[in-house]
Structures are given as C-alpha cells and as structure tokens.
Write a sequence for this structure.
C-alpha cells in the first residue's frame, strides 16, 4: 500500500495553513471525481485499471508472446509519455541492466527519445545479426523524434524480411482512428494498438503504450494492473485527507509550494528506480508546470547522489526544495556482508549484516541530516519492488498529480508549452508551412 510517513515534516507546518490546504485538496479531489475540471476530456486513466479494453489486453499478451518467440531484440520507439512509463517499469522490476542479464526474453532498446545520430547508429549496430521486432508508439503519430527513428527501423526491418514477415514484426501503438502513423500502419498491414483518446501521454503507461514493451520483458501485467486497481479503489473510496495517504501527500506538497519551495526532489535508494523518477518528473513537470506555477521536479538516487548533490541539498537546499522519498520495506534480493580475517578494511562491524539494513540506516541518517538542514522529507512506503507495488505507485502518483494540479489551479492534462521548441525547430529546418518564421529566427541566431 502507498503509505505516507509525514511525522518528520510536522514541525514545519502551521496548523491553520494545513487545515486550509486540506479544504482545498478535498475540493480539488471532488473536481476530479465529478469530472468538471479543466482537461476533463482526459480522464480515461481514472478508471482505467478496471475499465481497460480486455480484448486489447489479450491481444497485447499475444503480441508479446509473438515477439518473445520470434525476436532477439525489441526496438521501442517513442518519446515522453510514449516511452518513459515502459522503461521505468522494466528497469524497476527487471533492472537497469536488463539487457545484460541472462534471460529468455528479448533485449529491449529504447530509441526515438532524442535526435542523437550516435544513439541511433549505436542501436542499429546492436541489431546486427539479430532478429528484430519494432513497437513504435506515438499518440499523435507526428512527433519528430520517433518519426525519424521509425523511418530508420522500418527500412531496416523491410531490408531484412519479406514484406509479409516485416508486417508481422512491426507493432504500432497510436490513435484509434486518425494520424499519420495510423494511416501508415493500415496501409502496410501492421498490427495496431490504441492510445485511448481520453488518456494523455504521461498517463498512458497502463495502456498498450506501456503494457506491450513491459509484457515483452516478461513482467506480469495482470499483477501490475491489479496493484493499480487496488490503488484506484482506495482513491475512489477514501476521500478524507486523514485516511487517504495520497490526498495527504497532495496537501503537504502544496503546502511546501506555498511556503516557497521551488523544487520537489524525488528520492530513491534503489538505482533501479532512476527511470521511475524520470517518469515522475514528466508526470508532475508537464502536469503542473504552467501559467508561471508549479514545483520543479528533480530526482536523485541515494546514496549515489549523496556523493555529488548531497552537499548542495544539505547546506543550500533549505527553503528551495523538499524531498519525496520512495522507500521499499522489503528486498527479495538481499546480500549478507561477510566477515574477513584481519579486518583490514575495518568493515567487520558489518559482518553478517544485510545490505538492505545498511541502506536503510543510510536513509535514516540522511533523513535526519537533511531535515536538520531544513529540507523536509516526505516518505512514501511500499512493500517491495514488484508488479503489484509498482502498479500501486503508478496509479497513486497519477491521482496525486491530477488532484494537485487542480489545487494549484492549472489544467493538469495539457502541455501547451511543449509546442514552442517544435515550432522553432520546424521553421529552422524549413518544414513546409513554417517558412515565414525561418528568416526571423535565423536573424535572431545570427545565422
Ligand atoms: O505527455 C505527453 O503528452 C507528451 O510527453 C507526449 O507523450 C510526447 O510528446 C509524445 O507524443 P506522441 O505520443 O504524440 O508522439
């Protein structure tokens, strides 16, 4: 269960401010539940863990089996919400070293999430001599980064396999009816999966967007959905802040924002959660960062980053940020530290100790140090890293983010600011329709 430990922040909170924020949060929660807030045409994710398309879910499993049986490598093409969720779940549950592990499932490479030619060339080279399958994911079907990568990998698949075989190896996850990618897929006979109209990119990990790559990695997507469904039922039924850890989290993060904190630092003590932090950064950053408002989401993995950013947080973090630590209470893959004769490294005081215990002491030590330094710590506890708990975490954060957006007074489901760089890039590249801007921008850049 998503459990919030907030006793370490109580001394920072003024009770009158707390009560006012509780009322705002309850009102924001009601707006979400009643579906009468801004962006209410993007609420498909709210009941998704139970209301998902069961037929498509079965098709996803079938496609995953096909890929597992016929490909050494799955190329996943997508950016932002069309990529982060799948990678976050795969790395959390299977490891960031997934591709290096001995396993019966295909290698999975993510591409089309940048415009780096070296990254692209590297992945093409890694496909040399391998049987490949491609899952291209783009709701709009027109995003430049995945479109370029898809052009490359479609050509690669077409050059290696017959037309019929190539069509069996390309899977497109996109809009149900429209868009360039949908048209292309229908023309070429590629299997398509749907990004529902009412689910935005950053809320789409529990649709085919995330589920197909996740299933190919051998992850139990039923358990993932079950975790999310249980969190969904909690959010739907527990609506008072006192009993809802999700709503209490919303109250506290918004209070810290009102107290002038500019950043929320998502912290994990498990390196495998680094990509999950990236997913969180998109979820909160794109949902809240608009109209001049919002906490800037940052992330760290401790104790790794205690040896780089720890100095800053300890001595200059006060007033700037608070930390939201995601902590897992159990570890299925522990390591017991041995004893060494002579104790030359001085570590025998840890002999017989589990590394998870050492990690936990590091967390507690850091919590005290950072709290003393004026950086508040919210701690979210879960049982362990597995499908069920990650499903819970995904849904709980999605829900918290949506309610938080309404508390802040923004539309948590749009991302108008994302378009600005695209317009400039298209104009500079001379894309048809953008000619008028080209000269102006080139002058500005002195080109
Ligand atoms: O959350 C979002 O909506 C964005 O991050 C999109 O997911 C991202 O821009 C990719 O868009 P698309 O799936 O249309 O290619």
């Amino acid at each position: 269960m998503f459990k919030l430990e907030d006793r370490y922040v109580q001394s920072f909170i003024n009770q009158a401010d707390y009560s006012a924020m509780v009322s705002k949060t309850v009102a924001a929660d009601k707006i979400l539940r009643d579906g009468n807030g801004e962006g209410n045409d993007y609420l498909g994710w709210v009941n998704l863990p139970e209301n998902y398309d069961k037929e498509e879910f079965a098709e996803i499993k079938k496609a995953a089996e096909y890929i597992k049986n016929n490909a050494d490598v799955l190329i996943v093409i997508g950016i932002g919400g069309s990529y982060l969720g799948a990678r976050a779940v795969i790395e959390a549950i299977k490891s960031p070293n997934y591709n290096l592990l001995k396993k019966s499932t295909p290698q999975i490479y993510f591409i089309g999430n940048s415009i780096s030619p070296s990254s692209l060339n590297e992945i093409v080279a890694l496909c040399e001599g391998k049987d490949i399958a491609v899952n291209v994911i783009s709701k709009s079907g027109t995003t430049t980064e995945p479109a370029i990568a898809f052009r490359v990998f479609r050509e690669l698949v077409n050059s290696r396999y017959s037309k019929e075989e190539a069509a069996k190896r390309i899977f497109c996850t996109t809009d149900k009816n429209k868009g360039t990618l949908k048209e292309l897929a229908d023309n070429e006979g590629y299997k398509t999966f749907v990004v529902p109209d009412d689910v935005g990119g950053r809320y789409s990990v529990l649709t085919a967007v995330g589920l197909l790559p996740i299933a190919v990695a051998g992850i139990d997507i039923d358990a993932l959905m079950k975790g999310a469904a249980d969190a969904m039922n909690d959010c739907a039924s527990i609506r008072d802040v006192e009993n809802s850890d999700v709503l209490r989290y919303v109250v506290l993060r918004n209070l810290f924002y009102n107290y002038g904190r500019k950043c929320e630092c998502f912290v994990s003590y498990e390196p495998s959660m680094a990509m999950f932090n990236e997913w969180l950064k998109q979820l909160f950053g794109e949902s809240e960062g608009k109209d001049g408002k919002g906490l800037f989401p940052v992330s760290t993995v401790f104790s790794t980053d205690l040896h780089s950013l720890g100095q800053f947080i300890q001595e200059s973090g006060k007033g700037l940020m608070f930390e939201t630590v995601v902590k897992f209470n159990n570890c299925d893959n522990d390591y017991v530290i041995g004893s060494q004769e002579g104790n030359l490294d001085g570590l025998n005081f840890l002999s017989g100790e589990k590394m998870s215990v050492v990690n936990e002491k590091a967390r507690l030590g850091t919590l005290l140090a950072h709290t003393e330094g004026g950086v508040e710590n919210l701690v979210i506890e879960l049982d362990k890293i597995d499908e069920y708990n990650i499903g819970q975490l995904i849904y709980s954060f999605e829900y918290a983010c949506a309610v938080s957006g309404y508390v802040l007074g923004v539309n948590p489901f749009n991302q108008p600011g994302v378009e600005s760089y695209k317009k400039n890039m298209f104009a500079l590249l001379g894309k048809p329709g953008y000619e008028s801007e080209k000269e102006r921008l080139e002058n500005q850049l002195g080109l």
In short: The pocket of 5-phosphoarabinonic acid is lined by residues 79-82, 138-140, 143, 146, 200-202, 286, 415, 418 (CB under 6 Å). The chain is about 50% helix and 10% strand. The chain has a mean pLDDT of 96. The longest strand covers residues 321-328.
